[in-house]
Amino acid sequence: MDLTTTLPVAIIGAGPVGLAAAAHLLERGLEPLILEAGATPAAAIEQWRHIRLFSPWRYNTDAAAVRLLEATGWESPEPSALPTGGELIDQYLTPLVALPAIASRLQTGARVVAVTRLGMDKTHSRNRDATPFVVRVEHADGEVRDHRAAAVIDASGTWSTRNPLGTSGLPPVGEAAAAYRISSPLPDVLGRDREAFAGRTAVVVGAGHSAANTLINLAELADQVPGTKIVWAIRGASAAKVYGGGDADGLAARGQLGSRLRSLVESGAVELHTGFGIAALAAAGAVTLTSADGRTLEADVVVPATGFRPDLDFLRELRLELDPGVEAARELGPLIDPEFHSCGTVEPHGAKVLAHPERDFYIVGMKSYGRAPTFLLATGYEQVRSVAAALAGDREAADTVQLELPETGVCSSDIGTSCDVPVAANAGFVAESDGGCCGTPEPVLVGFPTGLAHGRSGAN
């Protein structure tokens, strides 16, 4: 598609990575159209605003976005400070979306339900690359509109599509019926969700940083409210991967998170059940969780810190080429496979690696990692810098990718996937799974919550 036309580049999602994409496009003289499903920008991060990221501010802001902000007199937060999700919104993202250059190009309450090419489905090839995209949007007022675009950047994250509680990638029998006993992936147990947990039994399911973060907050609640019981159920045989690298972790707060959780388990404050793959849930007052080997746990509330997966349904009419395992772009998949890579060992990558057969379409941010749990927010910023350069025709800048990431202090071949990101947030957030290394979740990656270390919340 000729990007010298008047058509905009549609950006799906107004989280940190989507807004960074808009800033880079503006610097390149391209016109962004930012479509956010939530009522406000960074709506996913708003769900975990109580979570403190374990990466400092210097990893959590994008260079092009900062240049836009500094031109208005904005002052960057202390680079070494660790922000909460709320502080990320209030001190960085809210000022960014208030800028006329961003605000005038942002639509909230605009959920993308389909992306295709004008007048053709995915079976048609002739003149496909020169045909505009059509982005179908359901707006908050109920109106459905089609927006034409020269290119599309999907930065929608994965917060809205968590993994099920069961094994084999499927919900356990009875999960839907027990939904009223299942919390959000990163509940605010010390704040808005306190009543649901105080004096009750909570079972946290998952083996990533989202689980760790919730367990630690529950332990604080238990100190305040007698009768609060904390149970932790994981699918694996050991929780070592969640404990992480301790003092060897390049992000001190992440290492401290694992060490503190280990102490809670060893003291008995958290009751750990390993090898607990959930086969069924039964809700009758309380909820009963049954493992594949017949063991049972009783709970008043279940926390699903089981990670996330990408929503690909609205992209069905596009020609995508995905890694068969992690559901990332085919060239990216082997680079982020959690069986071999940790957050700090993933190679820098940009438009070339993220490309699909559908020209001028890119998935970026946490969603770009599919089911892999090793995403870092800083990685997303480098992705969109490269993608903006590619769309502007600057191939040299697009192909020159650089990124410095902190090591996890753990070996992926030893502990498997445990990265955890938000998204909470669909955004600066992380994920986790049952075998990896980031140890976010995810809600995060560099730039994700302690409970979300890198891309989503974690697997069990």
How would you describe this structure to a colleague?
The chain has 460 residues and is of the alpha/beta class. It folds into two domains: 9-160 and 308-399, FAD/NAD(P)-binding domain; 179-304, 3-Layer(bba) Sandwich (FAD/NAD(P)-binding domain). It has helices at 16-27, 43-46, 63-70, 85-98, 100-103, 194-197, 209-224, 240-243, 252-267, 333-336, 351-354, 377-391, 395-399, 412-415, and strands at residues 9-12, 32-35, 106-107, 110-117, 133-139, 144-149, 151-154, 201-205, 229-233, 271-273, 278-284, 286-291, 296-299, 301-304, 361-363. The strands form four sheets. The chain has a five-stranded parallel sheet with strand order 3-2-1-7-15, covered by helices on one side. A four-stranded parallel sheet has the order 10-9-8-14, covered by helices on one side. A three-stranded antiparallel sheet has the order 4-5-6, with no helix packed on it. A hairpin with a 4-residue loop joins β12 (286-291) and β13 (296-299). It is globular, with a radius of gyration of 21 Å.
Q: What's the tally of helices?
A: 14
Report the span from N to C terminus.
43 Å
Alpha-carbon Rg, integer: 21 Å
Task: Classify the helix fraction into a percent range.
Answer: 10-25%
Mean pLDDT: 86
| Strand numbers in spatial order across the main sheet | 3-2-1-7-15
Total number of distinct structural domains:
2
Low-confidence stretches: 408-460
The number of E-state strands comes to: 15
User: What's the architecture of the largest domain in CATH terms?
Assistant: 3-Layer(bba) Sandwich
Q: What's the CATH first level of the largest domain?
A: Alpha Beta
Strand content: 15-25%
Shape by Cα distribution: globular
SS content category: alpha/beta
